[in-house]
Amino acid sequence: MRPYSECVDLRSDTVTRPVSGMRAAMAAADVGDDVFGDDPSVNALQSQLAAQFGFAAGLFFPSGTQANLAALMSHCQRGDEFIVGQEAHTYRYEGGGAAVLGSIQPQPIANAPDGSLDLAAIESAIKPDDAHFAITRLLALENTIGGKVLSTQYTQAATRLAQSRGLRTHLDGARIFNASTALNQPVNVLCAGFDSVSVCLSKGLGTPAGSVLLGDEQFIHRARRLRKMLGGGMRQAGVLAAAGLYALSHHVERLAEDHANAAHLAAALDALPGVRVEPVQTNMVFVHVPAEQCHALAAHLAEVGVLILPGARLRLVTHLDIDRHGIDRAIDGFRGFFC
Ligand SMILES: *Cc1c(COP(=O)(O)O)cnc(C)c1O
Questions:
Q1: Are 205 and 252 in contact (CB under 8 A)?
Q2: Single pTM value for the model
Q3: How do residues 94-116 score in pLDDT, each as one tens digit?
Q4: Ligand 1, atom 14: nearest CA belongs to which residue?
Q5: Does 192 share its domain with 301?
Q6: 131 C-alpha to center of ligand 1: Å?
Q7: Which residue has a Cα nearest atom 5 of ligand 1?
Protein backbone atom coordinates (compact mmCIF):
# COMPACT_ATOMS: atom_id res chain seq x y z
CA MET A 1 0.00 0.00 0.00
CA ARG A 2 1.10 3.56 -0.76
CA PRO A 3 1.25 6.19 1.97
CA TYR A 4 -1.97 8.21 1.93
CA SER A 5 -0.20 11.37 0.78
CA GLU A 6 0.64 9.61 -2.52
CA CYS A 7 -2.88 8.32 -3.11
CA VAL A 8 -5.51 9.61 -5.51
CA ASP A 9 -8.58 9.58 -3.27
CA LEU A 10 -11.79 9.49 -5.31
CA ARG A 11 -14.04 8.38 -2.44
CA SER A 12 -15.45 11.85 -1.72
CA ASP A 13 -14.75 15.57 -1.87
CA THR A 14 -14.85 15.53 1.95
CA VAL A 15 -11.31 14.10 1.97
CA THR A 16 -9.73 17.42 0.95
CA ARG A 17 -7.10 18.61 3.41
CA PRO A 18 -6.50 22.27 4.26
CA VAL A 19 -3.80 23.81 2.05
CA SER A 20 -0.95 25.77 3.62
CA GLY A 21 -2.53 29.17 2.85
CA MET A 22 -5.70 28.03 4.59
CA ARG A 23 -3.74 26.76 7.59
CA ALA A 24 -1.97 30.13 7.80
CA ALA A 25 -5.33 31.94 7.71
CA MET A 26 -6.60 29.65 10.49
CA ALA A 27 -3.51 30.28 12.62
CA ALA A 28 -3.89 34.05 12.21
CA ALA A 29 -7.68 34.14 12.83
CA ASP A 30 -9.17 36.69 15.18
CA VAL A 31 -11.33 34.72 17.62
CA GLY A 32 -13.79 35.10 20.49
CA ASP A 33 -16.49 33.01 22.17
CA ASP A 34 -19.05 32.38 19.44
CA VAL A 35 -21.76 31.24 21.87
CA PHE A 36 -21.66 34.83 23.13
CA GLY A 37 -21.64 36.00 19.48
CA ASP A 38 -18.13 37.38 20.08
CA ASP A 39 -16.11 35.65 17.37
CA PRO A 40 -15.24 38.21 14.68
CA SER A 41 -14.20 35.58 12.12
CA VAL A 42 -17.44 33.62 12.53
CA ASN A 43 -19.46 36.83 12.31
CA ALA A 44 -17.59 37.87 9.16
CA LEU A 45 -18.18 34.49 7.50
CA GLN A 46 -21.88 34.51 8.39
CA SER A 47 -22.48 38.02 7.11
CA GLN A 48 -20.39 37.56 3.96
CA LEU A 49 -22.33 34.45 2.95
CA ALA A 50 -25.70 35.98 3.89
CA ALA A 51 -24.96 38.98 1.64
CA GLN A 52 -23.67 36.82 -1.21
CA PHE A 53 -26.71 34.53 -1.12
CA GLY A 54 -29.27 37.29 -0.61
CA PHE A 55 -30.39 36.37 2.93
CA ALA A 56 -30.74 38.50 6.07
CA ALA A 57 -28.66 36.29 8.36
CA GLY A 58 -26.32 33.29 8.58
CA LEU A 59 -25.30 30.81 11.27
CA PHE A 60 -22.13 28.71 11.36
CA PHE A 61 -22.46 25.01 12.19
CA PRO A 62 -19.90 22.25 12.79
CA SER A 63 -21.50 20.04 10.12
CA GLY A 64 -23.98 20.10 7.27
CA THR A 65 -26.06 17.41 8.93
CA GLN A 66 -26.56 19.62 11.97
CA ALA A 67 -27.28 22.69 9.83
CA ASN A 68 -29.97 20.77 7.92
CA LEU A 69 -31.48 19.34 11.11
CA ALA A 70 -31.64 22.77 12.75
CA ALA A 71 -33.23 24.12 9.56
CA LEU A 72 -35.91 21.41 9.52
CA MET A 73 -36.60 21.93 13.22
CA SER A 74 -36.69 25.71 12.81
CA HIS A 75 -39.29 25.41 10.03
CA CYS A 76 -41.37 22.52 11.43
CA GLN A 77 -43.05 21.74 14.73
CA ARG A 78 -43.35 18.28 16.27
CA GLY A 79 -45.89 16.34 14.16
CA ASP A 80 -45.38 18.39 11.01
CA GLU A 81 -44.05 16.72 7.86
CA PHE A 82 -41.64 17.71 5.12
CA ILE A 83 -41.72 16.66 1.48
CA VAL A 84 -38.32 15.42 0.36
CA GLY A 85 -36.68 13.29 -2.32
CA GLN A 86 -35.95 9.60 -1.76
CA GLU A 87 -32.32 10.32 -2.64
CA ALA A 88 -32.00 13.47 -0.52
CA HIS A 89 -29.28 13.71 2.10
CA THR A 90 -31.78 15.06 4.66
CA TYR A 91 -33.92 11.96 4.22
CA ARG A 92 -31.43 9.20 3.50
CA TYR A 93 -28.05 10.05 4.94
CA GLU A 94 -28.65 11.92 8.18
CA GLY A 95 -29.55 9.04 10.48
CA GLY A 96 -33.24 9.85 10.36
CA GLY A 97 -32.48 12.89 12.54
CA ALA A 98 -35.58 14.86 11.53
CA ALA A 99 -37.80 12.03 12.80
CA VAL A 100 -35.62 10.95 15.74
CA LEU A 101 -34.70 14.35 17.15
CA GLY A 102 -37.29 16.69 15.61
CA SER A 103 -40.40 14.46 15.60
CA ILE A 104 -40.81 15.66 12.01
CA GLN A 105 -42.25 13.09 9.63
CA PRO A 106 -40.61 12.82 6.22
CA GLN A 107 -42.89 12.42 3.18
CA PRO A 108 -40.39 11.10 0.64
CA ILE A 109 -41.19 11.09 -3.08
CA ALA A 110 -39.12 9.66 -5.92
CA ASN A 111 -36.41 11.78 -7.50
CA ALA A 112 -36.73 12.00 -11.28
CA PRO A 113 -33.64 10.90 -13.26
CA ASP A 114 -32.53 14.56 -13.41
CA GLY A 115 -32.66 14.79 -9.60
CA SER A 116 -35.80 16.95 -9.46
CA LEU A 117 -39.08 16.16 -7.73
CA ASP A 118 -42.03 16.10 -10.12
CA LEU A 119 -44.21 19.14 -9.42
CA ALA A 120 -47.45 17.15 -9.71
CA ALA A 121 -46.04 14.57 -7.27
CA ILE A 122 -45.20 17.36 -4.81
CA GLU A 123 -48.68 18.78 -5.22
CA SER A 124 -50.39 15.47 -4.56
CA ALA A 125 -48.21 14.79 -1.49
CA ILE A 126 -49.46 17.97 0.22
CA LYS A 127 -52.08 16.91 2.79
CA PRO A 128 -55.40 18.65 3.25
CA ASP A 129 -56.26 20.15 6.66
CA ASP A 130 -57.77 17.01 8.15
CA ALA A 131 -57.17 15.48 11.57
CA HIS A 132 -56.00 12.22 9.96
CA PHE A 133 -52.92 13.82 8.47
CA ALA A 134 -49.69 15.33 9.60
CA ILE A 135 -49.43 19.01 8.71
CA THR A 136 -47.37 19.40 5.54
CA ARG A 137 -45.08 22.28 6.43
CA LEU A 138 -41.99 22.22 4.25
CA LEU A 139 -40.54 21.30 0.87
CA ALA A 140 -36.84 20.36 1.01
CA LEU A 141 -34.75 20.22 -2.18
CA GLU A 142 -31.04 19.59 -2.77
CA ASN A 143 -28.71 21.18 -5.35
CA THR A 144 -26.53 19.55 -6.57
CA ILE A 145 -28.11 16.17 -5.90
CA GLY A 146 -26.06 13.08 -6.76
CA GLY A 147 -23.83 15.39 -8.82
CA LYS A 148 -26.80 16.64 -10.86
CA VAL A 149 -27.77 20.27 -11.13
CA LEU A 150 -31.33 21.49 -10.65
CA SER A 151 -32.05 24.29 -13.11
CA THR A 152 -33.06 27.68 -11.78
CA GLN A 153 -36.23 27.44 -13.84
CA TYR A 154 -37.14 24.23 -11.98
CA THR A 155 -36.30 25.48 -8.48
CA GLN A 156 -38.27 28.67 -9.10
CA ALA A 157 -41.31 26.68 -10.23
CA ALA A 158 -41.01 24.36 -7.21
CA THR A 159 -40.63 27.18 -4.67
CA ARG A 160 -43.55 29.07 -6.27
CA LEU A 161 -45.71 25.95 -5.97
CA ALA A 162 -44.69 25.48 -2.32
CA GLN A 163 -45.36 29.12 -1.53
CA SER A 164 -48.79 29.05 -3.19
CA ARG A 165 -49.72 26.13 -0.93
CA GLY A 166 -48.40 27.77 2.23
CA LEU A 167 -45.28 25.58 2.53
CA ARG A 168 -41.86 26.78 3.55
CA THR A 169 -38.83 25.79 1.49
CA HIS A 170 -35.32 24.64 2.41
CA LEU A 171 -32.45 24.01 0.03
CA ASP A 172 -29.66 21.62 1.02
CA GLY A 173 -26.97 23.49 -0.88
CA ALA A 174 -24.04 21.42 0.40
CA ARG A 175 -22.61 21.69 -3.14
CA ILE A 176 -24.42 24.83 -4.31
CA PHE A 177 -21.13 26.31 -5.55
CA ASN A 178 -20.75 23.31 -7.87
CA ALA A 179 -24.24 24.02 -9.21
CA SER A 180 -23.38 27.69 -9.63
CA THR A 181 -20.19 26.76 -11.51
CA ALA A 182 -21.99 24.30 -13.79
CA LEU A 183 -24.84 26.72 -14.60
CA ASN A 184 -22.59 29.79 -14.68
CA GLN A 185 -25.16 31.59 -12.53
CA PRO A 186 -24.50 33.32 -9.19
CA VAL A 187 -25.59 31.56 -6.00
CA ASN A 188 -28.12 34.26 -5.08
CA VAL A 189 -29.99 33.54 -8.33
CA LEU A 190 -29.92 29.77 -7.67
CA CYS A 191 -31.25 30.28 -4.14
CA ALA A 192 -33.89 32.94 -4.85
CA GLY A 193 -37.30 31.75 -3.65
CA PHE A 194 -36.01 29.50 -0.84
CA ASP A 195 -36.69 30.40 2.78
CA SER A 196 -33.42 28.81 3.89
CA VAL A 197 -30.22 27.32 2.45
CA SER A 198 -27.40 25.28 4.00
CA VAL A 199 -23.95 25.51 2.43
CA CYS A 200 -21.03 23.11 3.07
CA LEU A 201 -17.51 24.46 3.38
CA SER A 202 -15.89 21.06 3.93
CA LYS A 203 -16.59 19.45 0.55
CA GLY A 204 -15.12 20.89 -2.63
CA LEU A 205 -14.27 24.14 -0.84
CA GLY A 206 -11.68 22.24 1.16
CA THR A 207 -12.07 23.35 4.79
CA PRO A 208 -11.65 20.86 7.66
CA ALA A 209 -15.24 21.41 8.92
CA GLY A 210 -18.22 23.68 8.84
CA SER A 211 -21.47 24.62 7.17
CA VAL A 212 -23.44 27.85 7.15
CA LEU A 213 -27.23 28.07 7.35
CA LEU A 214 -28.89 31.10 5.78
CA GLY A 215 -32.38 32.54 6.27
CA ASP A 216 -34.30 35.47 7.70
CA GLU A 217 -33.63 36.89 11.18
CA GLN A 218 -36.43 35.01 12.94
CA PHE A 219 -35.53 31.69 11.33
CA ILE A 220 -31.86 32.10 12.30
CA HIS A 221 -32.85 33.18 15.82
CA ARG A 222 -34.71 29.88 16.27
CA ALA A 223 -31.87 27.95 14.60
CA ARG A 224 -29.36 29.44 17.07
CA ARG A 225 -31.34 28.02 20.01
CA LEU A 226 -31.60 24.66 18.20
CA ARG A 227 -27.86 24.64 17.44
CA LYS A 228 -27.16 25.03 21.17
CA MET A 229 -29.68 22.29 21.99
CA LEU A 230 -28.07 19.96 19.44
CA GLY A 231 -24.62 20.53 20.90
CA GLY A 232 -23.29 22.65 18.06
CA GLY A 233 -22.46 25.82 19.97
CA MET A 234 -18.71 26.20 19.52
CA ARG A 235 -16.44 28.64 21.31
CA GLN A 236 -13.36 30.00 19.43
CA ALA A 237 -14.79 28.71 16.16
CA GLY A 238 -13.05 31.52 14.28
CA VAL A 239 -10.17 29.16 13.46
CA LEU A 240 -12.69 27.18 11.38
CA ALA A 241 -14.52 30.22 10.04
CA ALA A 242 -11.20 31.65 8.83
CA ALA A 243 -10.76 28.50 6.75
CA GLY A 244 -14.20 29.16 5.27
CA LEU A 245 -13.36 32.78 4.44
CA TYR A 246 -10.12 31.61 2.80
CA ALA A 247 -12.04 28.99 0.80
CA LEU A 248 -14.58 31.53 -0.45
CA SER A 249 -11.84 33.67 -1.94
CA HIS A 250 -9.50 30.90 -3.19
CA HIS A 251 -11.46 27.69 -3.83
CA VAL A 252 -14.67 28.66 -5.60
CA GLU A 253 -13.46 29.56 -9.08
CA ARG A 254 -11.30 26.46 -9.24
CA LEU A 255 -14.34 24.15 -8.96
CA ALA A 256 -14.47 24.32 -12.77
CA GLU A 257 -11.21 22.30 -12.77
CA ASP A 258 -12.90 19.55 -10.74
CA HIS A 259 -15.74 19.47 -13.27
CA ALA A 260 -13.30 19.30 -16.20
CA ASN A 261 -11.38 16.52 -14.45
CA ALA A 262 -14.61 14.60 -13.87
CA ALA A 263 -15.51 14.91 -17.57
CA HIS A 264 -12.02 13.74 -18.56
CA LEU A 265 -12.22 10.75 -16.20
CA ALA A 266 -15.71 9.85 -17.44
CA ALA A 267 -14.73 9.90 -21.11
CA ALA A 268 -11.70 7.66 -20.51
CA LEU A 269 -13.57 5.13 -18.35
CA ASP A 270 -16.55 4.94 -20.71
CA ALA A 271 -14.19 3.62 -23.41
CA LEU A 272 -13.26 0.58 -21.29
CA PRO A 273 -14.82 -2.83 -22.02
CA GLY A 274 -17.63 -3.79 -19.59
CA VAL A 275 -17.80 -0.29 -18.11
CA ARG A 276 -20.62 2.22 -18.53
CA VAL A 277 -20.45 5.79 -17.32
CA GLU A 278 -23.44 8.07 -16.66
CA PRO A 279 -23.41 11.60 -18.11
CA VAL A 280 -21.41 13.97 -15.89
CA GLN A 281 -22.58 17.44 -14.87
CA THR A 282 -20.31 18.45 -11.97
CA ASN A 283 -17.63 16.71 -9.88
CA MET A 284 -19.18 13.25 -9.59
CA VAL A 285 -18.73 10.37 -12.00
CA PHE A 286 -21.05 7.37 -11.66
CA VAL A 287 -19.53 4.25 -13.17
CA HIS A 288 -21.28 0.91 -13.67
CA VAL A 289 -18.96 -2.09 -13.38
CA PRO A 290 -19.75 -5.82 -13.14
CA ALA A 291 -20.93 -6.38 -9.53
CA GLU A 292 -18.84 -9.52 -9.09
CA GLN A 293 -15.68 -7.57 -9.95
CA CYS A 294 -16.14 -4.49 -7.83
CA HIS A 295 -14.18 -5.64 -4.78
CA ALA A 296 -11.30 -6.96 -6.89
CA LEU A 297 -11.29 -3.64 -8.76
CA ALA A 298 -11.10 -1.63 -5.52
CA ALA A 299 -8.25 -3.85 -4.28
CA HIS A 300 -6.36 -3.51 -7.57
CA LEU A 301 -6.75 0.26 -7.54
CA ALA A 302 -5.63 0.48 -3.89
CA GLU A 303 -2.42 -1.36 -4.87
CA VAL A 304 -1.63 1.42 -7.32
CA GLY A 305 -2.65 4.16 -4.88
CA VAL A 306 -6.16 4.94 -6.17
CA LEU A 307 -8.90 4.89 -3.52
CA ILE A 308 -12.57 4.20 -4.32
CA LEU A 309 -15.61 2.97 -2.42
CA PRO A 310 -16.48 -0.41 -3.97
CA GLY A 311 -19.91 -0.97 -5.55
CA ALA A 312 -21.56 -1.97 -8.81
CA ARG A 313 -22.38 1.71 -9.33
CA LEU A 314 -19.19 3.49 -8.33
CA ARG A 315 -19.31 7.13 -7.29
CA LEU A 316 -15.98 8.79 -8.11
CA VAL A 317 -15.60 12.35 -6.83
CA THR A 318 -13.06 14.90 -8.05
CA HIS A 319 -11.76 17.68 -5.77
CA LEU A 320 -8.92 20.03 -5.05
CA ASP A 321 -6.52 17.34 -3.84
CA ILE A 322 -6.63 15.61 -7.27
CA ASP A 323 -5.00 17.31 -10.26
CA ARG A 324 -5.06 16.16 -13.90
CA HIS A 325 -2.01 13.98 -13.31
CA GLY A 326 -3.89 12.21 -10.50
CA ILE A 327 -6.87 11.67 -12.78
CA ASP A 328 -4.59 10.13 -15.38
CA ARG A 329 -3.11 7.82 -12.72
CA ALA A 330 -6.66 6.73 -11.84
CA ILE A 331 -7.45 6.10 -15.51
CA ASP A 332 -4.28 3.98 -15.84
CA GLY A 333 -5.38 2.01 -12.77
CA PHE A 334 -8.78 1.22 -14.31
CA ARG A 335 -7.14 0.33 -17.65
CA GLY A 336 -4.76 -2.03 -15.85
CA PHE A 337 -7.74 -3.88 -14.43
CA PHE A 338 -10.13 -3.94 -17.40
CA CYS A 339 -7.74 -4.21 -20.39
C1 LIG B 1 -22.09 16.28 2.93
C2 LIG B 1 -23.50 16.66 2.78
C3 LIG B 1 -24.24 17.19 3.84
C4 LIG B 1 -23.69 17.42 5.20
O5 LIG B 1 -22.79 16.49 5.61
P6 LIG B 1 -21.81 16.64 6.85
O7 LIG B 1 -20.87 15.54 6.62
O8 LIG B 1 -22.66 16.49 8.05
O9 LIG B 1 -21.16 17.99 6.82
C10 LIG B 1 -25.54 17.54 3.60
N11 LIG B 1 -26.09 17.40 2.38
C12 LIG B 1 -25.41 16.93 1.34
C13 LIG B 1 -26.06 16.85 0.00
C14 LIG B 1 -24.09 16.54 1.50
O15 LIG B 1 -23.41 16.05 0.45
A1: yes
A2: 0.97
A3: 999 999 999 999 999 999 999 99
A4: 174
A5: no
A6: 35
A7: 64
Atom of ligand 1 nearest to the CA of 144: 13
Closest ligand 1 atom to residue 66 Cα is 8
Name the residue of 13, 14, 65, 201 to mutate for ligand 1: max ligand atoms within 8 A of Cβ.
65
First to last CA, the chain: 22
Q: CB of 211 closer than 6 A to ligand 1?
A: yes
Say if CB 204 and CB 251 are below 8 A apart. Answer: yes
218-256 pLDDT tens trace: 999 999 999 999 999 999 999 999 999 999 999 999 999
Per the structure, how many domains does the chain have?
2
Question: Do 237 and 285 share a domain, yes or no?
Answer: no
Neighbours of 320 (CB within 10 A): 20
Residues 93 and 182 in one domain: yes
| Sheet with 276-277, edge to edge strand ranges | 276-277, 284-288, 313-317
